[in-house]
Design goal:
It is a single chain. The protein is built from eleven helices and twelve strands. Strands 1, 2, 3, 4, 5, 6, 7, 8, 9, 10, 11 and 12 form a twelve-stranded mixed beta sheet that branches. The protein has helices at residues 26-35, 46-51, 57-66, 80-88, 98-102, 105-114, 143-152, 175-183, 197-205, 215-218, 224-231; strands spanning 2-4, 7-12, 15-23, 41-45, 71-74, 93-96, 119-126, 129-132, 137-138, 157-162, 187-191, 210-212. The protein is globular, with a radius of gyration of 16 Å. Strand 11, helix 9 (197-205) and strand 12 form a beta-alpha-beta unit. It has 233 residues and is α/β, with parallel strands linked by helices. It has one domain: Aldolase class I (TIM Barrel, Alpha-Beta Barrel).
Length: 233
Amino acid sequence: MDLKDGKCVTLVGGDPSKRVAELEDPLRAAVKWEKCGASILHLIDLDGAIEGMPANMPIVRRIVRSLRIPVQFGGGIRTIEAGRSLLESGVQRIILGTLAFADPKVVSSLSTDYGPSRVMVALDFRAGKVLTHGWRSFTDIDPVSAARAYERLGAGSLLVTNVEVEGRLQGMPLKPIRDLVGAVAVDVVAAGGISSLDDIMSIRSTGAAGAIVGAAIYTGRINLREAIGKAER
C-alpha cells in the first residue's frame, strides 16, 4: 500500500500525475488485505519519500493499531531517531532507503539495537543504478554491490524495486532478481511490474523470499487470496 495525500494510491513509475488506482480509505483497504490472508502489510509513505519526513503518520498509526498482522513501513525515514520511533510505536520492520545511503552506520546501529529482522534496506534501481530521495536522485552504485554492502552492515532483508516497470503491469525482468539472490544470503523481496500469478511464480523461481504486489490487486488482475494460496503450495 502506497500512501499519498491521505489516500491509498498506485502510481506508474513513481509519477504522482499517473495513478493506476486511488482509494479514499487506506484503513479499509488494509483490513481487506488482512482478511484476504496477507501475512504482512507493506506500507509506503510516498509524500514522506519526497518531502524527507513521514507525512501520513495518523493513518499509519491507525493501520498499525487496527491490524493483527505485522506492518513494514518506509518513506521519509531520514534520521535514526525517526527509525527508532517507528520501531517502538508498533511497526514491525522499517525500510531504509535514502538514509541508508547517506549514513550507512545507521543500518548497523538499528540492526544491533532492534535485530536484523526489523531492518530492511530498499534498493530502488533504474538503468542499473540505485536511486534515492523518492526515486529522484541517482547514485553511482549498482544493486548487487549495494546489497553486499548492506548485508555486511547487518540489514536483515533487502527490498528491490525495478522502477522502470513499477506500476506498469507489464511483468518484471528476472535477471536482476536472480543476480541479487545469488549475491547475498539475506532475504530478497522483489517489487515492480507484477501483473499476474505467473509473474509471482516466476519471481519465486529466482529464490526471492517474497514479492510486493500493488497495482495488480487494486485493478483486479490478481486475486490476493488466490495468489497467496498458489505461492504457498
